[in-house]
Design goal:
Blueprint lengths: L3 H10 L3 H26 L5 H29 L13 H22 L7 H26 L7 H34 L1
């Protein structure tokens, strides 16, 4: 879905790079909220205090990294360019949010994660995903497109990289998890 939605937005609604960035931020906020629900409701924790403390630490570092990424993009891109317009409508944002949460409810219904995993495992998986996504984005945008910083070229390149880097990071993490499960079976 993280690949399909922005591609449909670009093709059918002519989303500009600013809209792709806004979609990315919206998806990351939904990702944070879903994992917060997992941490507070479905994960095992020794006490209620520790449950809330872990959720607070998780939320703090999540928002620090998201704001840091946003500032990095603001530095690298040309925010005054017409290509950075956020031509995504409120209806589209609500639709994207609903799709994300329906996907999460389906995950809850199929995986039934209640008391199957600990907060540490959830936090570790989220941190691995965020590190993979941000590292990929920083490296590709920072090293490949550094010569075009603050131009329209980097705006479009950033939109392209946002769509593909997140999906690539997810695929790599899924492959790593599957290879670990294969080793456990043998």
């Amino acid at each position: 879905m993280s690949f399909l939605i922005p591609c449909c937005g670009i093709i059918f609604f002519q989303w500009l790079p600013g809209a792709i960035l806004l979609y990315f931020m919206l998806e990351m906020v939904n990702y944070w909220l879903c994992n917060l629900v997992l941490l507070l409701v479905f994960a095992k924790a020794p006490s209620k205090k520790e449950r809330w403390q872990n959720a607070g630490i998780f939320s703090f570092w999540f928002w620090v990294s998201l704001i840091g990424f946003y500032l990095y993009v603001a530095f690298m891109s040309d925010p005054k360019s017409a290509s950075m317009a956020t031509n995504i409508t409120y209806v589209q944002m609500i639709g994207v949010t609903l799709i994300y949460w329906i996907q999460f409810v389906i995950f809850l219904a199929t995986a039934k994660p209640k008391n199957k995993t600990t907060q540490d495992v959830i936090i570790k998986e989220v941190y691995y995903r965020l590190i993979a996504i941000y590292l990929t984005l920083f490296c590709i945008i920072g090293y490949v497109f550094v010569f075009w910083s603050q131009t329209a070229v980097v705006n479009y390149a950033m939109a392209f990289v946002l769509v593909f880097a997140k999906s690539l990071a997810d695929l790599v993490l899924i492959l790593i998890r599957m290879s670990k499960e294969d080793r456990k079976i043998k």
